[in-house]
Amino acid sequence: xxxxxxxxxxxxxxxxxxxxxxxxxxxxxxxxxxxxxxxxxxxxxxxxxxxxxxxxxxxxxxxxxxxxxxxxxxxxxxxxxxxxxxxxxxxxxxxxxxxxxxxxxxxxxxxxxxxxxxxxxxxxxxxxxxxxxxxxxxxxxxxxxxxxxxxxxxxxxxxxxxxxxxxxxxxxxxxxxxxxxxxxxxxxxxxxxxxxxxxxxxxxxxxxxxxxxxxxxxxxxxxxxxxxxxxxxxxxxxxxxxxxxxxxxxxxxxxxxxxxxxxxxxxxxxxxxxxxxxxxxxxxxxxxxxxxxxxxxxxxxxxxxxxxxxxxxxxxxxxxxxxxxxxxxxxxxxxxxxxxxxxxxxxxxxxxxxxxxxxxxxxxxxxxxxxxxxxxxxxxxxxxxxxxxxxx
Length: 392
Fold this sequence. Notes:
Layout: E1 2-9, E2 14-24, E3 27-32, E4 44-45, E5 50-53, E6 55-60, H1 77-93, E7 96-101, H2 108-117, E8 125-127, E9 133-134, E10 146-147, H3 151-163, E11 169-172, H4 191-203, E12 208-212, H5 215-224, E13 228-231, H6 237-245, E14 249-251, H7 260-265, H8 270-278, H9 280-292, E15 296-297, H10 314-324, H11 329-334, H12 338-343, E16 361-364, E17 380-383, E18 386-390
Parallel strand pairs: 1-4, 1-5, 6-7, 7-8, 9-10, 11-12, 12-13, 13-14, 14-15
Antiparallel strand pairs: 1-2, 2-3, 5-16, 16-17, 17-18
């Protein structure tokens, strides 16, 4: 049992004070004022900390090598898995209890998910994308994607990812900022190819996420049924409306264009840093346009979720960037909890502190709705009812 809790209700935006949270195995039991406690060793006093659901990070490439030019597509799967595990564990320690992956070398995310679920290793919940899908020579070709061309090849590749254990699919529909020769509006899949992948995902009760740099391909992808749009570096109002009309979401990864210090510490080439940072103003304005049009945003970093970003873990920093784009503190919190759970189809299990939900809980010293900076001091992390960190 957790005692002396101030519980943040992400749905209502209210804080309920001086409550107890009963933990039953890996789930939340009663939430309220308790008249009695079990033996003292079964009670954890959080001393008035503000508790909220563990954070999601919805754009992870755990296997990515920095700088990109050092990627070895023939790398041993064992090395890939160890790198993924280290980054996933760092994320968990930072309070990120759920990760969505969007394209991993050697499909290491699928195997890491299985190992975590079996209790072989300690890590966050993983919603795995397996390998990304793209055209021959496309944006993901240097990062271990599956290359396909035409409707039949894309359908076969999509079915294969699900057969191997993917929870959702990732496609590359435009160029990006990681390659010098690519443009953001460069289309890399046609509508028929996108629709083929979407049809496979829908048959599995799942959805498709798309690496999407520019507006025109985003509008085509929305018509094809793509649900989640990653980056949206250059987004017109018309494109934002097209995403809103199909109840799509955007994972902006604002960190990508606002983290030159992190990039230099990871030995990125200067042209890469310059290309990323030069897109920063346009990127932020694009996401502000999305907010103005009512498009739902989700927190995702496209850099390791637990890495340091100016003295704060990258996931919290991204949440702050979402507020720079116009979200309120409550909407930013929802972008990192309840909204993510909805897209991952686990809104009845994760994203809130409620009875029968998994006991994935973080604690901060003050009210994060009043001041989001409270999240810069995550002092308590619980996942599956097990305390991972307690510095309260």
